[in-house]
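Curious: why these numbers?
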Amino acid sequence: MVYYDDWFIAYPPLPMPTAIISIYTSDGFVLAADGFDTDPDSGEILRTSVQKIFHVRDRTRELAFLFTGTDRICPKGSKEVIYDFIEAAKSASIALSDVHFEKSCDYANALLSRIYPLPEAARAALATHAKVPKTTIFIEGYYDGQARRDVLIIAHDDGKTDLMSGWATAGSVTGAFPDIRSIVAGSSEITLGTYRYKMSGIQTTVEAISAAWTLMYALCDAEARTVHPDAKTVGGWIHMAMITPQNGFQWIKEPRTGN
């Protein structure tokens, strides 16, 4: 595993064909995700209302897990789920709920050790695919009252794992999504041009919510798909949440039950 302690002040968005948006302000975190799940080989949309944001709370942590990339493993051409990263991470968080770690990165590392390496059946299912996207888990929120961001990345082609950890720095949009700047810059003023929004200097959760909706709508706009190929795999049921020191985790728009 490669580990970067305080790798970022505000880590840049990871370019991915999905939409995970995170904005931190002094008021708290605003988190948003799209609902698409696509086939890694064909690009076919398999599900349109996948929940990608999950609440995790225990005595010292008020967090959200956000998933992108490969969230479950099925053999090629089959719907049988051999391994589910989301369910595995949720189970791991329950098992770790009474364990205190001095640093958030230690907690993230303990979580990783419980979900990876994969069991043999899951590795065999992965081998049936020509290409398998990385599994990325964003861990966002408050650890011992401190705003933190940790990112776990599992590359399935070579088994390399990365853990990036740092303080949450306020005011910038981050997460995992296609390059919104190139999408908006390459669009017309009539459609995507109307979604122009600052990507830094966001000061309140009210501003952050507005920015998150604006960026998500831009990524899901039909014109975005003609400008940026990765935008074709962004869409479906958008869900959004916030985490504040006063009120903890709250849904702004809940995920849809069922897929």
